[in-house]
Amino acid sequence: MATTAGGSSWAREKALPIPDRNMIIIMEPFDSPREAKALPKFTKIFTSISTTFQSISSTRCRSMFSILIATLPSFLANLIKNPTPSDKKRRETQKILALDGLRGVACLFVFHAHYSYSFSNCLEEAPTEQLRDRIMYQPYMSLLWSGVAMVDVFFFISGYVLASRPLRLIRSQQVSKALSAISSAVFRRALRLYLPSMALIVLVALMTHLRFFEAGNNFYWQAHIGKVGPQEPPPPYFTSFWDQIWDALMDCYRMFDNTIPWGAFNVPYTDTGAARPQATIYDPHLWTIPVEFKCSMLIFMMLTLTAPLRTSWRMTINGGLGLNCLFTERFAELLFIAGMFFAEIDMIRAERHGQQVELDPSFHQRHNYNLPPARLQNLPFLQPIMSRRNFMSNLLGLAMFILGLFFLSTPSQSADVYPQFQTVLSWVPTYIQEKDDFVRVIGAIMTTWPVATSNWLAPLFSNSVAHYLGQISFALYLVHGAVIKSLWYWLQPIVNEWVAGKPVWAMPSGPFIRLWLIGYVIVLPTVLWSADIFWRVIDQRCVALARWVESKAV
């Protein structure tokens, strides 16, 4: 899915935005003075460990200790290596920080969805008339495990973040620099998305050949009965090691082949029947990667074409194309374009509020902007006006966010049976086939945009936990399926025997909740730990490799 990304996110390249007055100073997760004061005992412990590490003279022991540190989650490793609060600060705009956190939370909810699929097809396990009355399918509550809704959020964030830096340069009349930034992003985009995905496919193939999924395969074929039982099969085992690796490479080829929108054999990544490269699907969740790449190229093309245009023309073209995508059911493209569109709206608002970002001295004269200097905006008689305007803006953003979450909760199966959504669905044009998708993409826009603009909502997604999830979000998206189908498929029948001793479909709600929670407590930390290691060992190095290749090619 989503999204893009350099370093801390999978939808954002690492190029730093141009500093502006909206920028805030943040620190690495779990590395702020407030958190350091909250953990004095832990700091002393980690200081002692760090001192011990420094005193080790044996090269072998030092190497073993380094390997141990490398296997720890990054925030624990940082505490051991740097037990006192670091003075190193990273500057980042609040909106990008909040969107990163939102992406991390959304990725956690995607994990919830696929974890739930290990028990049954939670969307179709019973007639819709029964499902609609259960609390887990009610508006807002259903978002906790709605993977399809979270993917819509990914796509909007990707469009917003990818377009932010080029738009900032375009609006500051630095078109040549903007085109250079777009060229750099285009060059690195495929490497940024496909290298980690390829690494995951090969890694899963190696795990398969080493029989990490053997118990999971046995469990799947014993417990899977139509829409009940685990829904995603583990990859099959090949007797020959080289056959297994070749099959994985063919799966990588299938993912590439799906990227070409005009290809004669262009079919969804998860479609095995009509696909040209015949291979096992090692991770069906990777269907979002070709979509991310194609839509990213669309954004870069539109930025290139509209860079020399006036703002009004650029906004008209982008808005018109976005509406066309909405009413022709090209929803992924719409979300990327909407992200770009609203990113520029936010820049226009910031400029009109006197928060321009390194603009040319003559910028305001050319555009006939008569704005009060920033120091005048701080005068006492202007404060009530500014305060009232900020309050109304935040209130409107909160209302939009809440309504957007309701739209985003639209079920993907038989939505018209749910009384809560019948009125909303009746507003959708009759010729639209995927009416639930139509409502959800509007909800994704209404939910995500206020997070980037509202001072009330941003803190919810810019705290240390959300920021950490945002950092590892791409890795979390990539690895969670393999962990579920190896570790949890092996453990679920064992835990089930201890909790109830009955199939999930015949289990009362009480034992099922206990089974679900026990598995969650086991699987979630393992997924986060695996994602953290994958992020540091593979994802970040793929980003560095993409930059190195670009430096050699330019």
UniProtKB/TrEMBL annotation:
The keyword Membrane applies. The chain crosses the membrane at residues 140-163, 193-212, 286-305, 391-409, 438-457, 469-491, 511-531. This is Acyltransferase 3 domain-containing protein. Keywords: Membrane, Transmembrane, Transmembrane helix. It holds the Pfam family Acyl_transf_3. Residues 97-529 form the Acyltransferase domain. It comes from Exophiala mesophila. InterPro entries: Acyl_transf_3_dom (IPR002656), Acyltransferase_3 (IPR050879). The lineage of its organism: Eukaryota, Fungi, Dikarya, Ascomycota, Pezizomycotina. PANTHER family: ACETYLTRANSFERASE (PTHR23028), PUTATIVE (AFU_ORTHOLOGUE AFUA_4G08520)-RELATED (PTHR23028:SF134).
